[in-house]
Write a structure and sequence with these properties.
2 copies of one chain form a homodimer. Chain A contains 6 helices and 2 strands. Chain A is mostly helical and 138 residues long. A two-stranded antiparallel sheet of chain A has the order 1-2. The longest helix of chain A is centred in the last third of the chain and has 18 residues. Chains A and B meet through helix 4, helix 5 and helix 6 of A and helix 4, helix 5 and helix 6 of B.
Chain lengths: 138, 138
């Protein structure tokens, strides 16, 4: 959403309305994004949130990791002594799966996601598209 | 664990002790595995759980899906009307990531996981390996 509005900062209430995300949850998401240096918040009249970098410099992985990091398995989750230096095959496979998730999410920037004309606009109701469906129903 | 003990059924308490998994949680896991036809339970004296198929016919994905299925994104999670027929690029990427998780987990059978000599035995403390580490410390 912030990538659509690159000029002025956008307020939490406006974003919540457009994305239909509950304002309290959205507020936590924006705090996470701010902590990770993806957005900055400006206080006062005309304040709100704004992207720090361009949408082509932010990957989907950056955003996901800012909100809820992909859980990589570095050590044995069961704290088994004999698994301390080498993960067992089960945990190694689960970590490999998480590495694949990271690979998919890091391969797309936010700008990439916004320029797929065959898909509806991310997280937003597309009114033109809706109109098209409605006219087809007549 | 059940793949180690292929002869007799194994009880919940024994499994819980060996794997250090809380018995109440393990019981739910075993119920899920039974519902999916991966294990069968036998009641009474000498009863317990047993694999229905061989460990080489059960993939890690079968087990994970029996306990907590990988969440594939079939329709718009936000229920947006204009996203009903085509996912937006964000949800399409997230679903692609989940497809990669399924691919990794389906590529290994339980038997595969047990025959990796360079790794400790899945989910179990390996006493021989522990002994080796202790002797190195001397």
């Amino acid at each position: 959403m912030l990538a659509y509005e690159t000029e002025a900062p956008v307020g939490n209430a406006f974003l919540a309305e457009k994305t239909q995300i509950p304002p309290s949850y959205l507020s936590k998401v924006l705090q996470g994004l701010a902590r990770s240096g993806i957005v900055e918040s400006r206080r006062g009249v005309g304040g709100g949130f704004k992207l720090v970098r361009g949408a082509d410099e932010i990957t989907l992985l950056d955003v996901v990791n800012a909100v809820e990091p992909i859980p990589r398995i570095k050590g044995c989750p069961l704290n088994l002594e004999s698994h301390r230096h080498t993960l067992c095959a089960v945990h190694a496979r689960l970590d490999e799966a998480m590495a694949q998730v990271e690979a998919v999410l890091s391969s797309s920037t936010i700008a990439d996601l916004l320029r797929e004309p065959s898909r509806p606009r991310p997280l937003l109701e597309t009114v033109a598209f809706l109109g098209e469906i409605r006219s087809q129903k007549k």
